[in-house]
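Anyone up for a design puzzle?
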């Protein structure tokens, strides 16, 4: 073989080896990127299912969706949607103070009613959350479940309260999952939730959150001081 052809063949081999090496490197890079993407997506899915914010245990004399002394001189009935940001605000900023200062001391009996503005849930996730919360209530864990719902609310019908997440919340607070799943699947509290809806509309409640304090309608996530005034007035009217 002429020397010039031999030199050309060697160059071709070197070029071919270089191209093979580059292809292998590109393939390795692609595989690494795919693996990283799979891990990231997996972590995102996992984090979307894991509940954020542990629930507290300060629910004195909790009985289903109510807490406190049923014979207390003041009764507060809350009507709130689980996807309502102002309802979330009340739950996280004001409710605890009312519980500490009035429910725990036997002065207020507090009832939470899942309810959409004007009797219409904000969306399907609100209704699903209401169903799940009442199923938790059947194991006397309504308040713990309600708190997790609001702690994990980020928007309206954005996937916060999918069936998978609602089940994850149930597991988080230690519910009997077989019992919970059956209750949820069969919508066992449909009648009770519909009755709340009817009662709210009959009372003229068209915004959330709304509150009946011994029958007086209070609308909005007002500061604690405003609720304090209303409660003290109701206590005075009751001779307390």
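Challenge accepted. My sequence:
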């Amino acid at each position: 073989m002429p020397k010039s052809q031999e030199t050309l063949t060697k160059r071709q081999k070197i070029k071919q080896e270089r191209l093979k090496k580059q292809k292998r490197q590109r393939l390795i890079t692609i595989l690494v990127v795919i693996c990283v993407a799979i891990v990231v997506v997996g972590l995102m899915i996992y984090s979307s299912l894991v509940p954020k914010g542990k629930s507290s245990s300060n629910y004195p004399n909790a009985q289903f969706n109510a807490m406190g002394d049923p014979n207390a001189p003041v009764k507060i009935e809350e009507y709130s949607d689980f996807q309502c940001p102002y309802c979330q605000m009340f739950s996280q900023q004001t409710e605890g103070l009312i519980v500490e200062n009035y429910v725990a001391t036997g002065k207020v009996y507090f009832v939470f009613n899942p309810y959409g503005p004007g009797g219409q849930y904000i969306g399907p996730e609100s209704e699903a959350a209401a169903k799940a919360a009442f199923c938790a209530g059947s194991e006397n864990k309504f308040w713990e479940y309600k708190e997790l719902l609001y702690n994990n609310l980020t928007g309206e019908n954005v996937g916060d309260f999918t069936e998978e997440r609602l089940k994850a919340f149930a597991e988080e607070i230690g519910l009997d999952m077989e019992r919970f799943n059956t209750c949820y699947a069969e919508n066992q509290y449909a009648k009770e939730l519909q009755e709340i809806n009817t009662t709210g509309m009959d009372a003229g409640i068209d915004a959330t959150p709304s509150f009946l304090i011994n029958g007086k309608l209070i609308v909005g996530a007002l500061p604690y001081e405003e609720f304090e005034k209303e409660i003290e007035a109701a206590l005075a009217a009751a001779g307390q």
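A detail worth pointing out: The mean pLDDT is 86.
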